[in-house]
Amino acid sequence: MGTNTTPAMTDLIEPLRSLGFTDYEAQAYIALLRESPVTAYQVGKQTGLPRANVYAALETLSKKGACQPVTENPVRYAPVRPEVLFPRMQTGFEAQCRRAAEILAEIDRPDGEEHVWSLRGTEAIHAKIAGMIASATQHVWIKAHERLLRDHRPALLAAAERGVQVVLIVFGDPSVVDEYPLAPPSRIFMHENNGIEVGLGYTLVTVAIDFAEALTVNTAEGGIGAHTRNLPVVTLAESLIRHEIYVAEIFARFERELDAEFGPALLRLRQNYLPAPQAAALDRLIAERRRRKKNKNGKQEEETGHGRAMAK
């Protein structure tokens, strides 16, 4: 016995409703897709809609370009196929959006009324990051873990190609530097020259573009963040990343001296200012990195010794 795989009417109506179709229009359009050309009477018979509502729905669908009469006596209707109709609607809608944006941008806005907008969810956060990278004309500065930048790598490289300064402060594996062949004035820095995940470095992202726009988010637990064009907040974000650049440059030249004075990853200094759980986590991470490095070096020495013995 066969299985009916035809979607329920409510499942078919919902996407049309989201595109501005009324329920009557959606049902009439679906009826035409199932059988055409047909008269308004036949559409009403198939859908169970009152005849007056069917005539009104078909007239509106004709004006929207979703169907058209193909005979005159009696008038029979045929649908415009979805693969033709919806791209046409999309093109028209995008043009309307551009026109609306141009007109509304001319409205005067009082100075200092730039808001801070909340963002929730991974999809919304990464969509905003992508939009900021795409719209930048002067610079894109980002501080983030390398795993959070992977999907944005092509866009970042493309931004650098079009002359935008791309500066990245990155947590994580230092080998990621090779994945970003950036030429001056663009550059990628490992956070404090080693990329160790200090504090919330594994989940935090800070983005600033063009001295005009900033985003800060915590991607943990589904993700929550804030985006703004408020100048004091943007200045704060830009200043944060700028100082991270300074620190990266200083570590590149004086890491040994800084480690001797403050411990690896400035541990002794950070223990004075980080929340206790974060300081403890950093201490454990440093110890784990030290163990991994020791094991790696020991394995390399063992392999080297074995190779020498074989040579003899």
Describe it:
InterPro entries: TrmB-like (IPR051797), Tscrpt_reg_TrmB_C (IPR021586), Tscrpt_reg_TrmB_N (IPR002831), WH-like_DNA-bd_sf (IPR036388), WH_DNA-bd_sf (IPR036390). The protein is α+β, with helices and mostly antiparallel strands and 312 residues long. It contains eleven helices and nine strands. It folds into two domains: 75 residues, Arc Repressor Mutant, subunit A (Orthogonal Bundle), CATH 1.10.10.10; 155 residues, Endonuclease, Chain A, CATH 3.30.870. Helix 2 packs across helix 3. The N and C termini lie far apart (76 Å).
What can be said about the biggest beta sheet? 7 strands, mixed
Query: In whole angstroms, how far apart are the ends?
Result: 76 Å
User: What is the ordering of alpha helices and beta strands?
Assistant: HHHHEEHEHEHHEEEEEHHH
Low-confidence stretches: 1-5
CATH-derived topology of the largest domain:
Endonuclease, Chain A
- Report strand %: 15-25%
SS field, number of helical segments: 11
Count of distinct strands: 9
Q: Rough shape?
A: elongated
**Could you tell me the mean pLDDT?**
89
Domains (count): 2
Keywords:
312 residues; alpha+beta; Arc Repressor Mutant, subunit A; Endonuclease, Chain A; 2 domains; elongated
Write the layout of secondary structure elements.
Elements: H1 9-18, H2 23-34, H3 40-47, H4 51-64, E1 67-72, E2 75-79, H5 82-104, E3 116-120, H6 122-135, E4 139-145, H7 146-149, H8 153-161, E5 165-171, E6 187-190, E7 204-209, E8 213-218, E9 224-228, H9 231-262, H10 267-270, H11 276-311
Parallel strand pairs: 4-5, 5-6
Antiparallel strand pairs: 1-2, 3-9, 4-7, 7-8, 8-9
Pfam families: Regulator_TrmB, TrmB
Region (Disordered): 289-312
